[in-house]
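User: Let's play a game. I give you a shape written as C-alpha coordinates, and you guess the letters that built it. Ready? Here's round one.
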Protein backbone atom coordinates (compact mmCIF):
# COMPACT_ATOMS: atom_id res chain seq x y z
CA UNK A 1 0.00 0.00 0.00
CA UNK A 2 1.52 3.36 -1.05
CA UNK A 3 0.29 5.20 2.04
CA UNK A 4 -0.52 4.12 5.58
CA UNK A 5 -3.80 6.05 5.42
CA UNK A 6 -7.04 4.82 3.94
CA UNK A 7 -8.61 7.09 1.33
CA UNK A 8 -11.87 8.53 2.68
CA UNK A 9 -14.79 8.63 0.28
CA UNK A 10 -18.05 10.52 0.54
CA UNK A 11 -21.09 10.97 -1.67
CA UNK A 12 -22.77 14.33 -2.15
CA UNK A 13 -26.30 13.20 -2.88
CA UNK A 14 -28.42 16.34 -3.08
CA UNK A 15 -30.97 16.30 -5.87
CA UNK A 16 -30.63 14.51 -9.19
CA UNK A 17 -26.92 15.12 -9.75
CA UNK A 18 -24.60 18.03 -10.38
CA UNK A 19 -25.36 18.36 -14.08
CA UNK A 20 -28.05 21.07 -14.24
CA UNK A 21 -29.96 19.16 -16.93
CA UNK A 22 -29.58 15.70 -15.40
CA UNK A 23 -33.36 15.43 -15.05
CA UNK A 24 -33.71 15.29 -18.85
CA UNK A 25 -31.92 11.92 -18.94
CA UNK A 26 -34.53 9.10 -18.90
CA UNK A 27 -32.26 7.11 -16.56
CA UNK A 28 -32.74 9.82 -13.92
CA UNK A 29 -36.13 9.80 -12.16
CA UNK A 30 -37.42 13.36 -12.51
CA UNK A 31 -39.19 13.16 -9.13
CA UNK A 32 -36.20 11.58 -7.34
CA UNK A 33 -35.26 14.63 -5.28
CA UNK A 34 -38.47 14.36 -3.28
CA UNK A 35 -38.57 10.54 -3.19
CA UNK A 36 -37.46 8.54 -0.16
CA UNK A 37 -36.88 5.35 -2.22
CA UNK A 38 -34.54 7.34 -4.52
CA UNK A 39 -32.35 8.41 -1.59
CA UNK A 40 -32.65 5.03 0.09
CA UNK A 41 -31.16 3.42 -3.02
CA UNK A 42 -28.32 5.96 -3.13
CA UNK A 43 -27.41 5.18 0.48
CA UNK A 44 -27.54 1.45 -0.23
CA UNK A 45 -25.15 1.93 -3.18
CA UNK A 46 -22.81 4.01 -1.02
CA UNK A 47 -22.71 1.28 1.63
CA UNK A 48 -22.10 -1.33 -1.06
CA UNK A 49 -19.02 0.70 -2.01
CA UNK A 50 -18.02 1.03 1.67
CA UNK A 51 -18.14 4.84 1.41
CA UNK A 52 -17.67 6.83 4.60
CA UNK A 53 -20.26 9.55 4.17
CA UNK A 54 -23.54 10.44 2.49
CA UNK A 55 -23.81 14.22 2.51
CA UNK A 56 -26.73 16.60 1.90
CA UNK A 57 -25.98 20.19 0.95
CA UNK A 58 -28.77 22.67 1.59
CA UNK A 59 -29.97 26.25 1.36
CA UNK A 60 -32.97 27.88 3.00
CA UNK A 61 -34.38 29.37 -0.18
CA UNK A 62 -34.92 28.78 -3.87
CA UNK A 63 -31.85 30.54 -5.21
CA UNK A 64 -32.24 30.01 -8.97
CA UNK A 65 -32.93 33.37 -10.62
CA UNK A 66 -34.85 34.22 -13.79
CA UNK A 67 -31.92 36.07 -15.30
CA UNK A 68 -31.62 35.86 -18.25
CA UNK A 69 -35.38 35.88 -18.69
CA UNK A 70 -36.72 32.34 -19.07
CA UNK A 71 -33.96 30.64 -17.07
CA UNK A 72 -36.16 29.85 -14.09
CA UNK A 73 -37.99 26.53 -14.42
CA UNK A 74 -35.46 24.83 -16.69
CA UNK A 75 -33.57 23.18 -13.83
CA UNK A 76 -34.94 21.25 -10.83
CA UNK A 77 -36.16 23.76 -8.25
CA UNK A 78 -38.73 23.65 -5.49
CA UNK A 79 -38.38 19.91 -4.82
CA UNK A 80 -36.13 19.25 -1.84
CA UNK A 81 -36.30 17.53 1.51
CA UNK A 82 -35.22 19.25 4.69
CA UNK A 83 -31.91 17.42 5.23
CA UNK A 84 -32.23 16.30 8.86
CA UNK A 85 -35.72 14.95 8.28
CA UNK A 86 -34.49 12.92 5.31
CA UNK A 87 -31.35 11.65 7.06
CA UNK A 88 -33.41 10.60 10.08
CA UNK A 89 -35.49 8.42 7.76
CA UNK A 90 -32.37 7.08 6.04
CA UNK A 91 -30.82 6.17 9.38
CA UNK A 92 -33.37 3.37 9.67
CA UNK A 93 -32.40 1.74 6.36
CA UNK A 94 -28.60 1.98 6.60
CA UNK A 95 -26.08 0.61 9.06
CA UNK A 96 -22.56 1.98 8.53
CA UNK A 97 -22.31 5.00 6.24
CA UNK A 98 -22.14 8.43 7.87
CA UNK A 99 -25.12 10.77 7.46
CA UNK A 100 -24.10 14.42 7.16
CA UNK A 101 -26.45 17.40 6.84
CA UNK A 102 -25.87 21.07 6.18
CA UNK A 103 -27.37 23.50 8.69
CA UNK A 104 -26.77 27.24 8.93
CA UNK A 105 -25.70 28.99 12.12
CA UNK A 106 -26.83 32.28 10.57
CA UNK A 107 -30.49 31.50 11.16
CA UNK A 108 -30.82 28.61 13.59
CA UNK A 109 -30.47 28.67 17.35
CA UNK A 110 -27.70 26.52 18.86
CA UNK A 111 -30.01 24.70 21.28
CA UNK A 112 -32.14 23.58 18.35
CA UNK A 113 -29.06 22.58 16.35
CA UNK A 114 -27.54 20.62 19.23
CA UNK A 115 -30.82 18.81 19.79
CA UNK A 116 -31.55 17.81 16.19
CA UNK A 117 -28.01 16.67 15.40
CA UNK A 118 -27.84 14.85 18.73
CA UNK A 119 -31.11 13.13 17.85
CA UNK A 120 -29.73 12.06 14.47
CA UNK A 121 -26.64 10.65 16.17
CA UNK A 122 -28.84 8.62 18.52
CA UNK A 123 -31.14 7.43 15.71
CA UNK A 124 -28.22 6.35 13.51
CA UNK A 125 -26.18 4.71 16.26
CA UNK A 126 -23.38 7.25 16.02
CA UNK A 127 -23.23 8.17 12.33
CA UNK A 128 -24.24 11.85 12.35
CA UNK A 129 -22.22 14.73 10.96
CA UNK A 130 -22.95 18.45 10.71
CA UNK A 131 -21.73 20.55 7.81
CA UNK A 132 -21.57 23.93 9.54
CA UNK A 133 -22.29 26.83 7.17
CA UNK A 134 -22.81 30.56 7.33
CA UNK A 135 -25.49 31.66 4.88
CA UNK A 136 -24.56 34.34 2.34
CA UNK A 137 -27.74 35.16 0.41
CA UNK A 138 -30.39 37.76 1.06
CA UNK A 139 -32.91 35.27 -0.40
CA UNK A 140 -32.39 33.11 2.67
CA UNK A 141 -32.52 36.00 5.14
CA UNK A 142 -35.91 37.00 3.70
CA UNK A 143 -37.30 33.64 4.76
CA UNK A 144 -36.24 34.36 8.36
CA UNK A 145 -37.81 37.77 8.94
CA UNK A 146 -34.77 39.75 7.73
CA UNK A 147 -34.27 41.89 4.62
CA UNK A 148 -30.50 41.50 4.32
CA UNK A 149 -28.06 38.82 5.32
CA UNK A 150 -25.85 39.44 8.35
CA UNK A 151 -22.47 41.02 7.55
CA UNK A 152 -19.85 38.40 6.72
CA UNK A 153 -17.55 39.07 9.68
CA UNK A 154 -20.54 38.84 12.03
CA UNK A 155 -21.70 35.59 10.41
CA UNK A 156 -18.46 33.85 11.39
CA UNK A 157 -18.52 35.35 14.88
CA UNK A 158 -22.06 34.04 15.29
CA UNK A 159 -20.99 30.64 13.91
CA UNK A 160 -18.13 30.35 16.39
CA UNK A 161 -20.38 31.16 19.30
CA UNK A 162 -23.12 28.81 18.06
CA UNK A 163 -20.70 25.92 17.73
CA UNK A 164 -19.18 26.54 21.16
CA UNK A 165 -22.69 26.54 22.66
CA UNK A 166 -23.47 23.26 20.90
CA UNK A 167 -20.26 21.71 22.21
CA UNK A 168 -21.26 22.77 25.71
CA UNK A 169 -24.77 21.40 25.32
CA UNK A 170 -23.49 18.05 24.06
CA UNK A 171 -21.54 17.90 27.34
CA UNK A 172 -24.67 18.50 29.44
CA UNK A 173 -24.50 15.04 31.02
CA UNK A 174 -21.78 12.77 32.31
CA UNK A 175 -21.37 9.55 30.36
CA UNK A 176 -22.62 7.53 33.34
CA UNK A 177 -25.43 9.89 34.43
CA UNK A 178 -28.33 7.83 33.08
CA UNK A 179 -28.13 4.91 35.50
CA UNK A 180 -31.71 3.58 35.08
CA UNK A 181 -31.40 2.04 38.55
CA UNK A 182 -34.75 0.40 39.26
CA UNK A 183 -33.66 -0.86 42.68
CA UNK A 184 -33.12 2.71 43.89
CA UNK A 185 -35.77 4.25 41.71
CA UNK A 186 -33.16 6.54 40.14
CA UNK A 187 -33.42 7.16 36.40
CA UNK A 188 -30.63 9.74 36.17
CA UNK A 189 -28.05 10.95 38.69
CA UNK A 190 -28.68 14.68 39.27
CA UNK A 191 -24.99 15.25 39.93
CA UNK A 192 -24.28 14.09 36.39
CA UNK A 193 -26.11 17.08 34.89
CA UNK A 194 -24.24 20.25 33.90
CA UNK A 195 -26.14 23.42 33.09
CA UNK A 196 -24.49 25.65 30.52
CA UNK A 197 -25.64 29.17 31.48
CA UNK A 198 -24.10 30.69 28.37
CA UNK A 199 -24.36 34.46 27.84
CA UNK A 200 -22.64 35.74 24.72
CA UNK A 201 -22.82 38.28 21.93
CA UNK A 202 -25.50 36.42 19.98
CA UNK A 203 -26.97 33.79 22.26
CA UNK A 204 -28.21 33.31 25.78
CA UNK A 205 -28.65 29.60 26.50
CA UNK A 206 -29.38 28.12 29.91
CA UNK A 207 -29.21 24.39 29.13
CA UNK A 208 -28.82 21.52 29.78
CA UNK A 209 -29.69 19.61 26.62
CA UNK A 210 -32.66 17.31 27.13
CA UNK A 211 -31.01 14.14 25.81
CA UNK A 212 -28.22 11.83 26.98
CA UNK A 213 -24.70 11.95 25.53
CA UNK A 214 -24.73 10.75 21.94
CA UNK A 215 -22.94 7.59 20.76
CA UNK A 216 -20.10 9.68 19.30
CA UNK A 217 -19.93 12.19 22.15
CA UNK A 218 -20.82 14.75 19.53
CA UNK A 219 -21.49 14.59 15.77
CA UNK A 220 -18.54 14.96 13.41
CA UNK A 221 -18.06 18.60 12.32
CA UNK A 222 -17.70 19.30 8.59
CA UNK A 223 -16.93 22.67 6.98
CA UNK A 224 -16.54 23.95 3.43
CA UNK A 225 -15.65 27.65 3.56
CA UNK A 226 -12.85 28.70 1.21
CA UNK A 227 -12.65 32.36 2.24
CA UNK A 228 -10.11 33.58 4.79
CA UNK A 229 -12.77 33.51 7.49
CA UNK A 230 -14.01 30.11 6.39
CA UNK A 231 -10.56 28.56 6.42
CA UNK A 232 -9.81 29.91 9.89
CA UNK A 233 -13.15 28.65 11.17
CA UNK A 234 -12.42 25.21 9.69
CA UNK A 235 -8.94 25.18 11.22
CA UNK A 236 -10.43 25.87 14.65
CA UNK A 237 -13.40 23.48 14.60
CA UNK A 238 -13.74 21.18 11.58
CA UNK A 239 -12.88 17.49 11.55
CA UNK A 240 -13.58 17.13 7.83
CA UNK A 241 -13.00 19.97 5.34
CA UNK A 242 -14.59 20.03 1.89
CA UNK A 243 -12.58 21.92 -0.73
CA UNK A 244 -12.76 23.06 -4.37
CA UNK A 245 -9.65 22.75 -6.55
CA UNK A 246 -9.11 21.85 -10.20
CA UNK A 247 -5.36 21.28 -10.34
CA UNK A 248 -3.02 19.12 -8.28
CA UNK A 249 -0.73 22.05 -7.47
CA UNK A 250 -3.65 24.17 -6.22
CA UNK A 251 -4.93 21.28 -4.12
CA UNK A 252 -1.46 20.73 -2.63
CA UNK A 253 -1.19 24.41 -1.75
CA UNK A 254 -4.61 24.42 -0.07
CA UNK A 255 -3.86 21.17 1.75
CA UNK A 256 -0.57 22.48 3.14
CA UNK A 257 -2.08 25.84 4.12
CA UNK A 258 -5.06 24.21 5.81
CA UNK A 259 -2.96 21.71 7.75
CA UNK A 260 -0.66 24.54 8.88
CA UNK A 261 -3.63 26.58 10.13
CA UNK A 262 -4.94 23.58 12.02
CA UNK A 263 -1.59 23.20 13.79
CA UNK A 264 -1.56 26.92 14.63
CA UNK A 265 -4.86 26.36 16.46
CA UNK A 266 -3.16 23.72 18.60
CA UNK A 267 -4.90 20.82 16.88
CA UNK A 268 -3.49 17.67 15.28
CA UNK A 269 -3.49 18.18 11.48
CA UNK A 270 -3.62 14.41 10.93
CA UNK A 271 -6.97 14.30 12.74
CA UNK A 272 -8.64 16.63 10.21
CA UNK A 273 -9.58 15.14 6.83
CA UNK A 274 -9.49 17.30 3.68
CA UNK A 275 -11.81 16.05 0.91
CA UNK A 276 -11.82 17.87 -2.44
CA UNK A 277 -14.85 17.42 -4.66
CA UNK A 278 -14.51 15.20 -7.72
CA UNK A 279 -16.92 14.60 -10.58
CA UNK A 280 -15.83 11.56 -12.63
CA UNK A 281 -16.94 11.09 -16.23
CA UNK A 282 -16.34 7.42 -17.01
CA UNK A 283 -15.94 5.57 -20.28
CA UNK A 284 -14.65 2.22 -21.45
CA UNK A 285 -11.86 4.12 -23.23
CA UNK A 286 -10.51 7.64 -22.83
CA UNK A 287 -12.03 8.61 -26.20
CA UNK A 288 -15.41 7.29 -25.09
CA UNK A 289 -15.22 9.26 -21.84
CA UNK A 290 -14.25 12.45 -23.65
CA UNK A 291 -17.14 12.04 -26.09
CA UNK A 292 -19.50 11.52 -23.15
CA UNK A 293 -18.21 14.70 -21.53
CA UNK A 294 -18.71 16.71 -24.74
CA UNK A 295 -22.26 15.42 -24.94
CA UNK A 296 -22.84 16.48 -21.33
CA UNK A 297 -21.59 19.98 -22.15
CA UNK A 298 -23.80 20.16 -25.24
CA UNK A 299 -26.81 19.33 -23.05
CA UNK A 300 -26.41 22.62 -21.13
CA UNK A 301 -28.79 25.22 -22.50
CA UNK A 302 -27.04 28.59 -22.91
CA UNK A 303 -29.71 30.31 -20.83
CA UNK A 304 -29.17 27.80 -18.00
CA UNK A 305 -25.41 28.27 -18.18
CA UNK A 306 -25.75 32.07 -18.02
CA UNK A 307 -28.02 31.79 -15.00
CA UNK A 308 -25.29 29.77 -13.27
CA UNK A 309 -22.88 32.69 -13.79
CA UNK A 310 -25.36 35.43 -12.86
CA UNK A 311 -24.56 35.50 -9.16
CA UNK A 312 -20.90 36.19 -9.85
CA UNK A 313 -20.92 38.21 -13.09
CA UNK A 314 -24.40 39.66 -13.41
CA UNK A 315 -26.47 39.30 -16.59
CA UNK A 316 -24.13 38.30 -19.44
CA UNK A 317 -26.87 37.66 -22.01
CA UNK A 318 -25.83 40.78 -23.93
CA UNK A 319 -22.22 39.64 -24.22
CA UNK A 320 -20.61 37.60 -26.98
CA UNK A 321 -20.68 34.12 -25.43
CA UNK A 322 -17.57 33.20 -27.40
CA UNK A 323 -15.77 36.26 -26.04
CA UNK A 324 -13.62 36.60 -22.92
CA UNK A 325 -14.94 36.28 -19.39
CA UNK A 326 -15.49 39.75 -17.85
CA UNK A 327 -14.59 40.92 -14.36
CA UNK A 328 -16.73 39.94 -11.40
CA UNK A 329 -19.74 42.08 -10.59
CA UNK A 330 -19.05 44.89 -8.14
CA UNK A 331 -22.53 45.46 -6.71
CA UNK A 332 -22.33 42.53 -4.27
CA UNK A 333 -19.71 40.89 -2.09
CA UNK A 334 -18.75 37.97 -4.33
CA UNK A 335 -17.84 34.73 -2.57
CA UNK A 336 -14.59 32.85 -3.10
CA UNK A 337 -16.07 30.56 -5.75
CA UNK A 338 -16.56 33.51 -8.11
CA UNK A 339 -12.92 34.50 -7.69
CA UNK A 340 -11.91 30.93 -8.49
CA UNK A 341 -14.05 30.99 -11.67
CA UNK A 342 -12.28 34.09 -12.95
CA UNK A 343 -8.89 32.59 -12.19
CA UNK A 344 -9.45 29.30 -14.02
CA UNK A 345 -11.12 31.06 -16.97
CA UNK A 346 -8.16 33.42 -17.38
CA UNK A 347 -5.60 30.63 -16.84
CA UNK A 348 -7.22 28.48 -19.54
CA UNK A 349 -8.32 31.24 -21.93
CA UNK A 350 -11.96 30.14 -21.70
CA UNK A 351 -14.79 32.08 -23.26
CA UNK A 352 -18.02 32.80 -21.38
CA UNK A 353 -19.63 29.74 -22.99
CA UNK A 354 -16.64 27.52 -22.18
CA UNK A 355 -16.70 28.72 -18.57
CA UNK A 356 -20.34 27.87 -17.93
CA UNK A 357 -20.14 24.61 -19.84
CA UNK A 358 -17.20 23.44 -17.75
CA UNK A 359 -18.25 24.80 -14.35
CA UNK A 360 -22.00 24.12 -14.55
CA UNK A 361 -21.21 20.41 -14.53
CA UNK A 362 -19.85 19.86 -11.05
CA UNK A 363 -20.54 23.31 -9.59
CA UNK A 364 -16.93 24.39 -10.31
CA UNK A 365 -15.38 21.25 -8.76
CA UNK A 366 -12.75 19.08 -10.42
CA UNK A 367 -14.08 17.06 -13.36
CA UNK A 368 -11.95 14.00 -14.20
CA UNK A 369 -12.65 12.38 -17.57
CA UNK A 370 -11.37 8.92 -18.47
CA UNK A 371 -11.50 5.21 -17.85
CA UNK A 372 -11.99 3.87 -14.29
CA UNK A 373 -8.24 3.30 -14.11
CA UNK A 374 -7.48 6.87 -15.20
CA UNK A 375 -9.90 8.31 -12.66
CA UNK A 376 -8.29 6.12 -9.98
CA UNK A 377 -4.85 7.34 -11.17
CA UNK A 378 -5.89 10.96 -10.62
CA UNK A 379 -7.33 10.19 -7.18
CA UNK A 380 -4.23 8.25 -6.17
CA UNK A 381 -1.94 11.08 -7.27
CA UNK A 382 -3.82 13.64 -5.18
CA UNK A 383 -4.01 11.27 -2.20
CA UNK A 384 -0.34 10.27 -2.15
CA UNK A 385 1.13 13.65 -3.14
CA UNK A 386 -0.18 15.82 -0.33
CA UNK A 387 -3.37 17.14 -1.89
CA UNK A 388 -6.20 15.15 -0.28
CA UNK A 389 -7.16 12.70 2.45
CA UNK A 390 -9.99 11.46 0.26
CA UNK A 391 -12.73 12.79 -1.99
CA UNK A 392 -16.31 13.97 -2.02
CA UNK A 393 -17.99 12.29 -5.00
CA UNK A 394 -20.21 14.59 -7.05
CA UNK A 395 -22.27 12.50 -9.48
CA UNK A 396 -23.25 14.28 -12.68
CA UNK A 397 -26.43 12.21 -12.86
CA UNK A 398 -27.96 10.21 -10.03
CA UNK A 399 -28.32 7.34 -9.50
CA UNK A 400 -26.48 6.06 -12.61
CA UNK A 401 -23.14 7.77 -12.00
CA UNK A 402 -23.09 6.75 -8.34
CA UNK A 403 -23.50 3.09 -9.28
CA UNK A 404 -20.86 3.40 -12.02
CA UNK A 405 -18.33 4.88 -9.58
CA UNK A 406 -18.99 2.20 -6.95
CA UNK A 407 -18.90 -0.66 -9.47
CA UNK A 408 -16.01 0.55 -11.65
CA UNK A 409 -13.69 2.92 -9.74
CA UNK A 410 -13.94 1.66 -6.15
CA UNK A 411 -12.72 -1.85 -7.09
CA UNK A 412 -9.64 -0.33 -8.76
CA UNK A 413 -8.88 1.73 -5.65
CA UNK A 414 -9.38 -1.34 -3.47
CA UNK A 415 -7.03 -3.48 -5.57
CA UNK A 416 -4.38 -0.79 -5.14
CA UNK A 417 -4.80 -0.89 -1.36
CA UNK A 418 -6.08 2.68 -1.21
CA UNK A 419 -9.51 2.00 0.27
CA UNK A 420 -10.93 -0.38 2.85
CA UNK A 421 -12.23 -3.87 2.20
CA UNK A 422 -14.67 -3.69 5.13
CA UNK A 423 -16.04 -1.04 7.47
CA UNK A 424 -13.77 -0.55 10.47
CA UNK A 425 -16.44 0.57 12.94
CA UNK A 426 -20.13 1.23 13.48
CA UNK A 427 -19.71 4.99 14.01
CA UNK A 428 -18.72 7.74 11.60
CA UNK A 429 -15.83 8.75 13.87
CA UNK A 430 -14.58 5.20 13.91
CA UNK A 431 -14.69 4.81 10.14
CA UNK A 432 -12.97 8.16 9.58
CA UNK A 433 -10.29 7.26 12.13
CA UNK A 434 -11.10 10.32 14.25
CA UNK A 435 -10.44 10.39 17.98
CA UNK A 436 -13.27 9.77 20.40
CA UNK A 437 -14.90 12.79 22.01
CA UNK A 438 -15.25 12.65 25.81
CA UNK A 439 -18.38 14.07 27.42
CA UNK A 440 -19.46 15.55 30.75
CA UNK A 441 -16.82 15.72 33.49
CA UNK A 442 -14.36 13.96 31.18
CA UNK A 443 -14.64 16.92 28.82
CA UNK A 444 -14.14 19.41 31.59
CA UNK A 445 -17.77 20.49 31.71
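Assistant: Ready! My guess for every position:
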Amino acid sequence: MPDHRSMKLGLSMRGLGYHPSAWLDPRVPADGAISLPFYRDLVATAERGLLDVCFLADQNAITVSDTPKGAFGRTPVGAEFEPLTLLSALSTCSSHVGLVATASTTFHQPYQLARVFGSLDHLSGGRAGWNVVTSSRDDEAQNFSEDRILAKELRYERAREALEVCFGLWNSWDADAFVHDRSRGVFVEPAGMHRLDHKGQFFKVRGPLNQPPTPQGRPVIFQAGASEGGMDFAAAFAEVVYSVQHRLADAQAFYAAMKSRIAEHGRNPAAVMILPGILPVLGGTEAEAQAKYRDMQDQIDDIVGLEKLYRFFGDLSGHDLNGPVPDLRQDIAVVSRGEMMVRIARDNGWSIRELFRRTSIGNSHNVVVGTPEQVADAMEAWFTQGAADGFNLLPAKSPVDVADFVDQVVPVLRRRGLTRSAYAADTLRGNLGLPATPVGRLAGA
